[in-house]
Amino acid sequence: MRIPKEMNSAPVRPALILALAVMILCGTENLTAQSAARQIPIPPPPMGWSSWNSFSNTIDSQVAMEQAKAMVSTGMAKAGYQYVNIDEGWWLGERDADGNIVVDAKAWPALAPGERAGDMANIVRYIHGLGLKAGIYTDAGADGCSFMGPDLGPSYPHTGSEGHYEQDFLQFAKWGFDYVKVDWCGGDRENLDPAIQYAEIARAIARAESITGHRLYFSICNWGKNSPWTWAPNVGGVTADIWRTSGDIVAPIVANTKNSGRMASFPGVLNNFDQGIHPEAQHSGFYNDPDMMVLGMQGLTDAQNRVHISLWAISGAPLLVGADLAKLSDATLATLTNPAVIAVDQDALGLQAVKVSESGNGLEVWSKALSTAGERAVLLLNRTGEAASMAVNWSELGLADSSPASVKDVWAGKDLGAFNSSYSATVPALDAVMVIVRGSEGKFTTYAASGATTQPLSFTHVASRAQVARIQIAYTNPDKMTRFAELRVNGRIATRIAFPSTGSGNVPGAIWIESLLDRAGANNVLSFSVGGDPGPTIESISVE
Ligand code: GAL
Fold this sequence. Notes:
Elements: E1 23-25, E2 38-39, E3 47-50, H1 52-55, H2 61-73, H3 76-79, E4 83-85, H4 121-129, E5 133-139, H5 145-148, H6 165-175, E6 179-183, H7 185-189, H8 194-212, E7 217-221, E8 241-244, H9 266-275, E9 286-289, H10 302-314, E10 319-321, H11 330-336, H12 339-345, E11 354-359, E12 363-369, E13 375-382, E14 388-393, E15 405-409, E16 414-419, E17 422-427, E18 431-438, E19 445-448, E20 457-462, E21 468-476, E22 483-489, E23 495-499, E24 509-516, E25 524-529, E26 537-543
Parallel strand pairs: 1-20, 2-24, 3-4, 3-10, 4-5, 5-6, 6-7, 7-8, 8-9
Antiparallel strand pairs: 11-12, 12-13, 13-18, 14-17, 15-16, 15-18, 19-26, 20-25, 21-24, 21-26, 22-23, 22-25
């Protein structure tokens, strides 16, 4: 059925529950605007610090307290950093007769009167007392990374949670932790299937959350093995998570140890950035994680530090700092806390950048759509050894070519003026220029859901100007709980999308995704299906 009007001017039709609907849908043509449905807030990528890169297995209560204090005193907490994440090395694999984790009481002493040494709740209370959140770490297998190849110190077996998932994640929640990173050294060694194992863990986390009422944010760390972007969104029913897409940028650089001479490298940063780009999986609160930033560690110049966080921000990556927060230079601190850059990272659409052009073997233009219509963060990235003039065209950004767009330099904080159809700048060798372009949104075509029998809900004959298209989904979910639907595009592997509550009033809300609509003409097929919960009622999709 051809829908002749913009969805926002069409009469509200009775809600159709996706589970009951099969719909063959066509689109309106040449609509000028995306649906006016209000943007539903989704969880932003986490921001904080992790102990691994600068402290390796030497993490203890003293280090965690110092770093938490520094997060506040440096102004990082004010800028949005909140997690203090304790990584590998906090636990040496010991359990009591009931299987409960036992930690070294000297490394984790009482911090206040009435506390018991060896209780991880002490450090959590301390971190919370500073207004911050606390993260903890384990392995999905029986043994953790420090068994296989400890970075510093002896090898410790049994430093993993396999066989104790229920018990360990409940313990983490009871201690009060807010975040848990689950590594894959043991899982890898045992040749386990990460999609199955991490789903089990997500379910253990959900049970721990429902018993304690305490939320544990889930960080999956299996270095991109078995393509987690294909299974990690909503794995085991989780409503928000991050998953690593590659190995570590650098092995830990720990002061006053044999590893103090290691160097972070700029090619390493670029390499992890490249491996982290999977825009079709990054939506509705699910994020690719290219690793902790090495910004501020030895080996990178100030300019490279700026490029580093620009890359993380444009890809909407978790901003987790690996440097020693007590030793940051003023320049590094300014780079880490730049509000305009952080705003790009934390933008409410939660989308990832897409490479919109590439020329001259290493001159790349990246664009991230922002939540204000017509706004894009654009990175002109020069990976070559020579300075180069680089240009971005409004049409490549999906903006109207006919009207001028204003350009602001993000790092200089300077308005550069209004430009017709394109902007160009000279970008130094191995450097980047980051700008915000504010123009007029290009045309969207809205495809309305109508007619119904059984699922899946299929939008057929969908056309797109861009290969990786931005798609706005207008829907209702009257539940307080987030609902989910699986989207399959052109028969490829599906991604699971979160649809947070839109409230009880039946007023549609909207979220955004990016999909590879690679079929020419109006030949793309998008099929939504549900399972487990009733699913959202999808009203329409608007495609750029
Ligand atoms: C790696 C992980 C690092 C760190 C380390 C601890 O597998 O990628 O981020 O957690 O283990 O041993």
